[in-house]
Design goal:
The chain contains ten helices and seven strands. With 255 residues, it is an alpha/beta fold. Strands 1, 2, 3, 4, 5, 6 and 7 form a seven-stranded mixed sheet that branches. α2 packs across α10.
């Protein structure tokens, strides 16, 4: 995603080149390491049109059904001399940061061992094969593996509008940091207000088109629309919430 961002920044701010990105990973990549990119200075959010919510996922056969039960399992295994393992798509990813915050806030981070992989597929396969005890995954991917996997909590304040049978950690009364990945359109910072308003209006129309809704429904992908100002404010709020955990993770990567 960093390479894609640089390509957009290298282009003229004439509206012909835009960024379409899942901003959990994109924004976090600029916070974890110095990429020479200040997203809020270098880009302008046009609109949000989707959202990927992160879930804590276990094997169905584990019999764990809630986040509190997962925490209890982690503590029990540690008392018996074992660390609980968990997979994610790479250190510094949105999944890694979100679950790290969850574990740290609930006092069990040192009772676990993270296992990084390249991408969501490998992350999920490690759980399916039993190589790890739990995983972090986009909740929209879980229904396809409903006979093998179960999401025990969503790292969000509100339920996913599509996969709406997974309780949030807020509902469960468990400490966490909201970790979602807004899917947005953005442009270089120099584009005009008129351009942003025009494109945002087009996006607003697109998210209501039956073809778009059909495709996203099949993928279990949540459709969320926010205009430019709303998207920017939402991203700023996420960045502020992530910062303490991002700073801690960055320190470990630099050592």
């Amino acid at each position: 995603q960093v390479n894609a961002m640089r390509q957009v920044l290298d282009a003229d701010a004439d509206g012909l080149t835009v960024q379409v990105a899942a901003m959990g990973g994109a924004l976090m990549s600029t916070m974890i390491r110095d990429q020479g990119i200040d997203w809020f200075e270098d880009f302008r959010a046009v609109a949000q049109f989707g959202e990927t919510n992160q879930a804590l996922v276990v094997q169905t056969e584990s019999a764990i059904t809630t986040a509190e039960e997962l925490l209890a399992s982690i503590r029990a295994r540690f008392e018996s001399g074992e660390k609980t393992t968990w997979s994610h798509p790479g250190r510094g990813s949105v999944s890694h940061v979100g679950v790290t915050a969850f574990l740290k806030l609930n006092g069990v981070l040192d009772m676990t061992q993270d296992v990084p992989f390249q991408g969501g597929g490998e992350t999920r396969n490690a759980l399916l094969s039993g190589d790890v005890d739990f995983s972090a995954s986009g909740v929209h991917t879980v229904p396809a593996f409903a006979d093998r996997l179960v999401a025990v909590g969503l790292l969000a304040e509100e339920r996913d509008p599509v996969v709406d049978n997974v309780a949030t950690l807020a509902e469960q009364g468990v400490d966490f940091v909201p970790t979602s990945s807004p899917i947005i359109v953005a442009a270089p910072a120099g584009v005009s207000d008129e351009y942003v308003e025009c494109l945002a209006t087009a996006v607003a129309g697109a998210v209501e088109h039956r073809s778009f809704l059909s495709l996203t429904s099949k993928a279990k992908q949540a459709v969320v629309y926010r205009n430019s100002g709303e998207t920017t404010a939402y991203l700023e709020g996420l960045a502020d919430a992530w910062k303490p955990t991002v700073d801690a993770v960055r320190a470990t990567l630099e050592n």
